[in-house]
Each structure stands twice: as structure tokens, then as C-alpha cells.
Design brief:
The complex is a heterodimer. Chain A is an alpha+beta fold. Chain A is 20% helix and 34% strand. Chain A contains four helices and 14 strands. Chain A has a five-stranded mixed beta barrel with strand order 7-8-9-11-10. In chain A, strands 1-5-6 form a three-stranded antiparallel β-sheet, with no helix packed on it. In chain A, strands 2-4-3 form a three-stranded antiparallel β-sheet, with no helix packed on it. Chain B is an alpha+beta fold. The chains are: A alpha+beta, B alpha+beta. Chains A and B meet through helix 3 of A and strand 5, helix 2 and helix 4 of B.
Amino acid sequence: MFVVIDVAENRIVMPGELLSDKPERIAYAFVDKGKTYSTVVGLYSEGKLVPLEGPYEPLPEDLIVGIISEVKFSGYAVAINAAYVSFLSSREIRERYEMGDAIFARIDRVDEVKSVELVDAKKLPMGRLVKVSSVKIPRIIGKKNSMIDMLKSATGCEIFAGRNGYVWVTGNGNQVLAEKAIRMIETQAHTSGLTDRVAAYLKSQKSN
Amino acid sequence: MGATGTDKPKLYSDGKRVDGRPLDGLRNIKIESRVLNDADGSAYIEWGKNKILAGVYGPSECIPRHDQSLYRAIIKCRYNMAPFSGMEEHGRSGPSRRSKELSKVIKEAFENVIISENFPKTQIEIFVEVLQSDGGTRCAAVTAAAVALADAGIPMKDLICAVAVCKIDGHMAVDPGKEEDNFGESDMPIAFSPRTGDILLFQMDGLLTREELAEGMQLARNATERIRKIQVDAIHKVYAEPKEERFLVIK
């Protein structure tokens, strides 16, 4: 669901707020007595509801940034900013990791009790972790990577934005500036004209 | 809770209560959301002279493991009064029986609105700290906790709120202050889901006739619309005036 929504066409809805007088199948909404209501604080427009906050819910095919939290016998436990344990089997990877390593990986399976299995991991070089709310990640990436590409070129850093809300900033560029810009996007993700404002901010900081 | 004695104050005369309010008048309520850095969701409420902070964590791994459910998130709630909040003996260690009671009824109110089936094996924790108390803290606590849960993005069937009604000098009135709570003839806190009108918390002290009870419930229902508006405004303000640091400003 990598969609960037223009807030001008949306309205902010509350939990329990009526979205439709008919029963509709909308993510983050529920149907009660034939009418559809929101379950969260979110942006709603024409049948689509995007939460403005919320926990990360792991889905297969999500690309995430994880931190190795435990070295087990047959693999690794990886912290992915979810309430659920995620596991990376040694059979899936060639490299070896240590506690605290950052990896970029793909979610292969999520079972019915929400245990997560990861595959296709690669170790990330030394850098810093910026934790943001997972619902803001699409905005940090931007339409066709527009926002994240701008951040990378303006700061000179390599940035990996995990769908789980973990953003890894690495490289010889201005990591502090990258982090500040990411926080700015997180705070204002629901507003319009953000890309221009972030570009202006990055430009003003570069000349300092 | 009625008190005996000849020094009981006159609570209602000339159409006014001790603080000048009409029978259906609410005290001044202010809510600020997203005020704590560490919590996943938070809210601060000033309701009359009550000052209460609510912080929410979750969903997170359920600890201890044996508490967890394979089918839903476990809701936990701790209502606590600070030693300087004005009501309890200072520095008394451990939760009082009243605190345990309120923790339980508040938790049960939210168990019925949080869509916990989405998060098996996890816990959602609600912490309410009363910094200053002046009657009606459990209603203010529920009202603030609902905003904190919405701030955390925890899916719910409704944004709930609570208000109490009392009987003072024979009249039903909404939102008793401390004096009316202590010297009135009855106190009845109620939590509602405004969307359906369902009741999620219902307690009562004192003596009421059926008619008085019905009148009181209607007074409470009428008040929920005003309270909900204040909750919604607090949530909207988070997005209308986004701030990077979460901090609390007490004006």
C-alpha cells in the first residue's frame, strides 16, 4: 500500500466515525448493522482509509530493516519493531551475523499467530537507526521514490527505509541532517506540499 | 456518598450549584494529546481541577507469557493516584483497593471497544496517573485514555468517554465536583460508546428511584456529545499543529 495521499481531498476521521451507510470492505474499518465505521484516526477519501498512526503489522513481501537480537542455533531472532518475533533461518543466508547487526530483509511468511519468517537478508554497513511510525514510511519513500531519492542526494547518505518503520542511515554523508529530515517528514506526513518544504529545508541546511 | 452532620453545605439553590453551574453544566475540560515521548500514545486532561495523564503502550509482546492469549491482545490497565493528588494518605505504598477497583473497571470498559483480535499474543497497556484529584477522576481517566489509545493508533470500535451524574438536594445533576461527590445523595459514573449508546462502565453509590436513575442517565448521555467534541478537537490538533517533540505544557 505505497500510496501518497494529498490531504486536501481527505478528511481526518475518528475511531467509530461513520464512513458509509452501506457495508463496505475497507481496510482499518468495520461493519456494524450494515454501516461502515473507521477503527482508527486516519485519512479517508472515496473508499480508502489510511491510518495516521498505528503499530506495524507484518505482511509477506514487506521489505524491512531489522536488528539481530539473538543468535540462535539454526538462525537469528530479529527485532522488527513489531510485537511479534521474527526469525531468520541460517539456511536462507550466506553471511553470518552478530547481535546488534542491522539487516535489510524480506518477509517470506507470517503465520496465523503472527510469527514472521525472513529471507533474502543482507547486512547493512555501520550507520544509525531512525525509528519512525511504520504508517509514515510510504511518505518517506515518496511517489516513485521521489522523497527518499531527494534525501539521499541532498545528504549524501545511503538510506534504507524498512516498511516496519526502521530507517537505516549509513554512508559518509550528513547522517545528522538525514535524520532530522526524516523526523520532519514523519511529523508532517499528513500535510501537502511536504516534498517542497523538505527540499527547502535540506537546501538551507546544506549551506550552513 | 452521603455524609451526615449538620454542617452539610447547601448544594443547590436558586438554580445554581456551589460553583454556579446549572444542573446540566459540565466543568471546564481541556485535553491535549501526544504529550509523552516514551508512550506509544498519550493524553493529558484537565477536568475542573482534576489533572490526569494517560499513557498507552502496545501492542507489544505479552509479558508474562502465561498471560497471553492466542486469539487476542490482553488489555492491561493501571489507575494510580500520585501521593500529592489530594485524596489518599500520602506515600501509602502499593495500589489502594480503590485504585485496583478503578483499574479493573476502566480496563473492562476498553476491553469492549478495542479490537483486540487483530493482535494475538500481545498486550496493550493503559496507564493513568492522577496528578490532582477533585471528584470524577475515573470519568476523566476513561476520557483521557480513549484519546491516548487513538493517539497510539490502536483500532477501536468507538472513541468512548465517561461522565458522572449525582443527586444533590433532591435534583439530578451532571458532573459532580468533589464537594457534590462527598455531600450529595448519590454518585453515578457512566462510560458510553457514543456511536451506539452502549454503556461500558456503570457504577453507583447512594439511593435513587427508577425515575431519578433514568433522568440521570439521560443527563449523562446528553453530556457525551460535548465531551466527545473536546476529545476530537484534541486529536485534530495533533495534526493541525504538528510538533516534533512530544511535551506537556500546563498553562
